[in-house]
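Feature request disguised as a bug report, sorry. It would help if multi-protein outputs had a clear separator. Right now it looks like this:
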Amino acid sequence: MLDSTLILDATLLPAMLIAMVAGLLSFLSPCVLPIVPPYLAYMGGVSVTDMDETRTARRRVLLAAVFFVLGLSTIFLLLGLAASAMGRMLLQAQDWFVTIAGMVVMIFGAHFIGVFRIGFLDREARVEAGDRGGSAFGAYVLGLAFAFGWTPCLGPILGAILGLAASEADMARGTLLLGVYALGLGIPFLLVAAFFPMMKGPMAWMKRNMARIERISGLLLWTVGLMMVTGQFTAFSFWLLERFPALATVG
């Protein structure tokens, strides 16, 4: 017999994988990817042309990108802590809570796939941070503003990860999920900042295939929501433990 506590441990690994992929899909969303080069250039106090031509400019941009990622990670970690705390409060009704969260995630997924459109998710709300370009502190503030106010790109996918964090009902594990999500979103910013000339081709391909990427992200969300509703996360965890016994030590 498998110890039930191991199931909770094993579920963390697929949840972390989903959080990482969700962060990457957030980066690839239609109102994030197109603005990455000018946004990075502004934070570094250089031009996009400078980023393309000089290593000095890319070093400045990379430093700014590091503080930008730290800023957005700060907000996501706090959101993970808050979601986990709420899940802990609702621990007695956790089965119902996970089911409702899964249904909401499925609705978000259907929105992205294009089954229907949810009006308020198509409105973009940004928090203005003033003239903060060219400094590490300014980049950190912009990271905070980005995490707080950039919707609908982050909203549905972030909501799915917050649902997973809340279902953990454990502050450390829920916060970890949002930290992994922040890495999935932040690492591509760092890669573009460090290797901008080489990243222009892949970014152009992503822009051309934006609709397909959005549908893939919607399918991922819908699948995650279905797994939450039907309890397949637990079944998947049994399978993981049976195939990879070393996962019993995770968590």
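(second protein starts here, but nothing in the output says so)
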Amino acid sequence: MSDPKVVWHDHSVSRDEREQLNGHRGCVVWFTGLSGSGKSTVANVVEQKLFQAGVRTYLLDGDNVRHGLNATPQMLAERHGAEFAERFGLGFGQEDREENIRRIGAVAKLFCEAGLLTLTAFVSPYRRDRQAVREMLASGDFVEVFVDTPLEICESRDPKGLYKKARAGEIKNFTGIDDPYESPEAAELTLPGGELSAEELADRVVTYLRKQGKLGDK
């Protein structure tokens, strides 16, 4: 550690003890895909199924996190002022997206080590950023789930009207239109988002987690 004022403090309660109490393993299930691919919908259905089975979970959603931890400069300016907002707020350019995912990765790691099965739903368009989160975690803790929905289907859904605005030039750096999405090359699980229902896709995720031993006796 390069800063002598920052020293790691070991906990009295271990991760193994937390997982024994929970009756299942902690891990991070990282849903990635284009806006409108269905990743948030599927992640929510997965969490419902796991919760009903007695699994301790938490879902970190891209839009929700942008309302707090990773707020935009515009959202921070009213309370904290322009200078603060410019320094700490995150927009949607490549560097801001990188920091957005780094922060989420750090939070997801904490939840994972607390023994929670942590679900995240973020576009997270760059392979390098997703790989950086994988490398933060212990081996086997990162489960990448690619919701592989074709752009034309995502754009036809357009639940927030963002594709329409991006096509009109009202939104810049929009993934899939004027910013790239880098598909996973070796995701643990790939879901055909344009072919099956959210319920069916969620069942595939739960089945995978059970086969990998993540759910214990749940």
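Even a blank line would do. Unrelated, but nice: Residues 94-113 form the longest helix (20 residues).
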